[in-house]
Amino acid sequence: MRLVSFLALFLPALASADAPPSARLVSEPFLESYQPEVSVSGNVIVGVMTMGVARAIVDDEITVLSTGHSAEDQICLRVASRDGIYTSRNIYALPEESSGPVLLPYQSKLRDVVEEYGVDEIALAATAGDCDSGSSDFFLLSAGGQAAPAEAVIYLNSFGATDVFFELDAEVKSCDYISEGRRTTYDYICRLGALDVARSVPVTIIRERFGREQPSIEITIVGAAE
Prior knowledge:
By secondary structure, the chain is mainly beta. The chain is 12% helix and 40% strand. The chain contains three helices and 18 strands.
C-alpha cells in the first residue's frame, strides 16, 4: 500500500520533469481568423515544419528548439490552411536562457475547424522576432513526442510558377505540385528529408514560369525539436 502511494506521488513528478518548458503568448488575446471567402495573398514560404505538426495544433504539442540566443527571444508563429479559410498569427516570448525543445501553447477557440483539415491541408511557419520583422530565419516546428528523425517539409505558394525546386547541400531537387483541393495559400510541397539539427541549414527555393526563372527565395532553417 505504501509503495502504491509512493508511486502515485512520484510518477506525476517524473512526467512533469520530462515536459518541455512553455513559451509565453505575447499577442494576447490569441489571434486567429475563420473566413470562408478569401483571395490569394500572403508569402511564398507558408510552412517550414515536420509532417506531424498539423495534428500538434489540436493536441497542443507544437514545439520548437530554443538555442538560447538573444535574437530568438521572440518567435512569430503563423498558421494557414491550404484553402485560406483558417489563419492565425501570434507572437511568443521564449523562456529566459532556454535551451532545448520549447512548447508554443496553441490556445485556439476553433479547434473543431482545425480538426477537419488533413495532413497536407494546414501549414505552420515560425520566424525569429515579431511578425513584421521580415526574418528569413525559420525554426523547424515539430510535435512533442514525435519520433526523430522526422521528415522536414516546406509548403509554399508558387504565385503562378510552373516548376519549383529547392537547393539543399549543393543539390537541387524538384518540389511536388499539390493538385487536389482548393489551393489558396500554398500549392507546392518541398520534401527535404531529415535535417541535421546541430547546424543552421540554408535552403534556396527556385521558381520557374515556362522555363523563365523568377526571383529565388533564400531561407535558413535554424533549429528543430526532436
